[in-house]
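Archive record:
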Amino acid sequence: MELVTLGGKNSLEQVVAVARYGAKVEFSAEYRARVNACRAHVERFSREGKAIYGITTGLGDNCRKFIPEEDRVKIQRNHILAHTVSVGEPLCEEGVRAMMFVMLLHFGSGHTGFRLETLELIKELLNRHITPRVPKHGSVGYLGLEAHIGMVLIGEGRAWYEGELLSGAEALERAGLQPAVLGSKEGLTLVSGTTSVTALACLAYYDGTVLARTADVSGAFSLEMLKGTLKAMDERLMRARPHPGQMQTAENIRHILSGSRIAEKYRDYRVQDALSLRCMPQLHGAVKKTLKDGLESIDIELNSSVDNPLIFEENGEAEALMGCNADGTYLGMASDFLCIALTDLTKMAERRTDRLVNRHLSELPPFLNASADFNDGLMMIQYTAAGLAGEMRLLSHPAVVDNVPTCANQEDYVNMGYNAARKACDAVETARYILAIELICAAQAKEFYPADQSSPAIEAVYAKIREVMPPLNEDAALEPYIEAVQNLILEGEILKAVQNAGVDVKL
C-alpha cells in the first residue's frame, strides 16, 4: 500500500502502511467537503458568540469564561503551549507517525470543525517525513503527547527532518512549509480525543495478530521436534468444544505438520503430551479471541469522531454537543487485554523452549549441544526467555484500573488508556523475542533428525531461519541471531515461508 486516500472507510492496515512503511496520504473530495462544511458551522458559532466549549469559552477549568473573538487565536496557541508537558525519551518514529495519521482520521470525520488547512499541514508532515519529537511519558490518556505534535504545527517544539533534529520552525522551513495559525477549537481538538491510545493500540494489535499466528508455527515446530502427537489436534476434540480460535489453531497445526514423517512416526509414542504441547489449541484460541475482540474495537475507533464538543447538522441546523467521546477506555482495555493474552501465549512458548533444551524431557542432546565437551549450547537462551516471560507478567498488570483526578477535579475520572497502549507495544516486542527463541531452539533440534523428515511447511521455516543464522556447532554470541529471527517474525517472513509451502495460517 503506497498511497492511502482518506474519505472512505479507515482501516488498521492503512495506519501501519503510513506509520511504518511510509505510504503517502491524500484527501478525497468527500473528505475535503465534509471538513469544510463542518468548519463553516464553527465559524458561525464563533461569530454568534453562543457559549460553546472550546469555541467561545476558555478551556479546561476556564470553561465558564467567555473569550472575545479577537482573543480566540491566542487561547488556542496557549492551549498547545500549556499542554506540552510529556517527558522523557521520545516515542518511536512509527508511533508518532501513527498519531499524526490518526489525527487525520478523527479530525477529518466531519464533526470536529477542524480546518482543512491545518489537516493539510499534518498530511504534509507525514508525506515529507517530518517527525515531531514527542516525549513518551506522562499521559493519563491524551493531551501531553499530542501537544508536542501541535508545537511543530505552530512552528515551535522540535522535529526530525532528513536525519537531523531541528527546531519545529526550521524543519517546516526546510521542507517548504508554513506554520499554522490555529483557529477556534483547533488547539483544543489537537490535544483532545484518543489519538495516542488509538495509534499505539493499532501498532500493537497489528503486530499481535502476526505474533499469534506465528505462535502456531513455532508451537507446531516444537511439537514435531519433541515427538509430540497430533491426536491432541483431532478435529473431533475441537468440535466437542467449538470455540472458533481453538478450532482454527488445531487446523493450523494439522496443516503445518501435514506430510511430516517425524510426526507420523511418533504419533503413538506417548499416551499424552505435556500441556504446553497438547493445550495449544485451547490457549492460542483464547488469545485469538482476545485479538478479534480488540480488532473490532479498533475498526470502530478508526471510523469514529472522538472530539469534544462534536458538531452535528440536521435539517440545515447545526448544534454542538458536549460529551466525552474523547475517552480512551475502549482501546485502553483492549490494550490491557492484549498484554494479558500475550503473557499467556508466551508463558507456554517458554515452557516449550525449556522442553527443547532440557535433555530430561527432550530426548535430545543437553541444551541442543552439538559438541558438549567445550560448549554450553543453547543453555543460556532459555534464561533469556525466562527473564522476558517475567517482564511479560509485569506488563500484564492492567493500567486502566488506575485513576488520579486532574484539572481541579473537572476531570475526576481519567481513563489511563495511553499507559495501557504503550505497555501493549512493549508486550508485543517482548513476546516476539520469546517466540524467536523458541524458533531458534526448534531449528537447532532439527539438526539431530535426518534431513527432509519434517513437513514441507516446517522445512520452509527451517530454511528461512538458516538464512539468518547457521546451525550452532560451536558456541557463539546469540544476541544478533535472536534479533535477526525476531525481525523475521516482525516482517511476517515466517508466515510467508509457511504460506509459500502451501499453508495459510489463519487467526
